[in-house]
Amino acid sequence: MSCQQQEEILVKTVCEIYDKISKLESLKPSEDVNKLLAQLKLTCIPPNPIDTTKLCQKHQEIRTHLIQLRGESQSSLETHFSTKLGSYENPLDHIEEFPAYPNYIKLDLSKRMFFHTTDILNVSDELSDYEVVFLGALVGINKNDKVKVINHLAKYMAPNSILMLRSAHGARGFIYPIVDLTDLKGFEVLQVFHPTNEVMCSIIIARKSIINAGFFKLLSLTCWCNGVEWSL
């Protein structure tokens, strides 16, 4: 099967799933919601040569809306279980009911992390106090918003501090926004990780540059990820 045929089949399948998801009355956890989201994920896991950033306008609009809908479903999932667990007399005794709980157990760094609820564009000089900043995948769903946030971080992060961004690769671009490395002005890109398993997000590690803004230097990593796309 040619690359073009693979891409056409993928786009057709994703559009069919999108059509069903967009017609749901609610994105709260349910059999239909869970089934469709699982189908979408399984569709996007296998390697595919597609570049979702170069789709036609119609499919780009579907992709953007699909990312938004999936984000809303994740929010609904967390709200649902937050309400459910909060209804118990001892919520922590039932914490394992939350599907993503095992992921949080693995976050050993959580005790050294701080969480602030605010618009990142309203945070300026305080950013220079941190050695590492994580940029969530859904912070800036479209390219313009993502670049706006990245430029803001480049302006206020401390020199040599680390920026870790969640991105996507191939068909996974239907689930998460893709960060274009050329948009990382003011950062030196150190590594790019593309998972090949059920983990959907790619990871980009970049260092706040002192002089050579926009300089790329990618290093490989051998594990369950495909490491490097190119090196300059």
Description:
It is a single chain. This protein is 36% helix and 14% strand. With 232 residues, the protein is of the alpha/beta class. It folds into 2 domains: 3-101; 114-226, Rossmann fold (3-Layer(aba) Sandwich). Strands 1, 2, 3, 4, 5 and 6 form a 6-stranded mixed sheet that branches. The longest helix is centred in the N-terminal third of the chain and has 30 residues, at 57-86. The chain is globular and about 45 Å long. The chain starts with a helix and ends in a 6-residue tail after the last strand. Residues 212-232 have low confidence and may be disordered.
Radius of gyration: 19 Å
Q: Structural class of the secondary structure composition?
A: alpha/beta
Number of helical segments with 4 or more residues = 5
Q: What number of domains?
A: 2
The dominant shape is: globular
CATH class of the largest domain: Alpha Beta
Strand content: 5-15%
Task: Please state the average pLDDT score.
Answer: 86
CATH superfamily of the largest domain: Vaccinia Virus protein VP39
Distance between the termini: 33 Å
Give me the CATH architecture of the largest domain, please: 3-Layer(aba) Sandwich
- The total count of strands amounts to 6
Largest sheet: 6 strands, mixed
Poorly predicted runs of 5 or more residues: 212-232
Family: Belongs to the nicotianamine synthase (NAS)-like family.
Function: Synthesizes nicotianamine, a polyamine which serves as a sensor for the physiological iron status within the plant, and/or might be involved in the transport of iron.
Keywords: S-adenosyl-L-methionine, Transferase
Catalytic activity: 3 S-adenosyl-L-methionine = nicotianamine + 3 S-methyl-5'-thioadenosine + 3 H(+)
